[in-house]
Amino acid sequence: MDFFARIGSLQTINSILTLIAALLIIVGAIGFVTFNEWGRKLYIGACTAAIMANFFGVFIAIYSMSFVSEIAQSVQGMNRQEAQIMEGVAGTFGGIFAVITIVFSLIPITYLVINVFIAINLKTKALMS
User: Distance (Å, rounded) from C-alpha 66 to C-alpha 8?
Assistant: First the structure.
């Protein structure tokens, strides 16, 4: 059961970080659109924070897959042999889950990286003045 507390606390931290990054992106975008330098800098920082929060979410997903046998024993009351079989099956599906998590995380990460590069670009800064 300690596993669930660990994952729950990590997910809570990730949710709070993501919420803060999202709010900062909104505030930074408003400042960026109104051609304020502070808005551009805040937008760059918030997008970078969102990228880190996304990577943290991927870490949580992959980290949680390393405790499959512990989950099987605690949730379903399996013995050790059944838990090992479950771990083998979950290892296959866990690999698929990890690939899906990484692929779907690459979409927002790519979007955020493109936004950071656009905001950092000197031509963008020149357009603001």
Answer: 15
Residue-wise pLDDT tens digits, 30-49: 999 998 999 999 999 999 99
Residue 35 DSSP class: T
Does residue 86 fall inside a structural domain? Answer: yes
* Backbone φ, ψ for residue 36 (5° rounding): -100, 135
In a domain, 28, yes or no: yes
Dist. CA 18–CA 28, nearest whole Å: 15
Q: Under a CB-based contact definition with an 8 Å cutoff, are residues 93 and 54 in contact?
A: no
What tokens appear for 25 in the block? 């992106």
The candidate with the shortest Cα–Cα distance to 24, out of 56, 50, 46, is 46
Question: Which residue is associated with the tokens 């905001």?
Answer: 119
At 86 the pLDDT is 66
pTM over 0.90: no
Q: Which residue segment(s) compose the domain that 17 sits in?
A: 2-122
Q: How many domains does the chain have?
A: 1
Q: Does the pLDDT value for residue 77 go beyond 90?
A: no
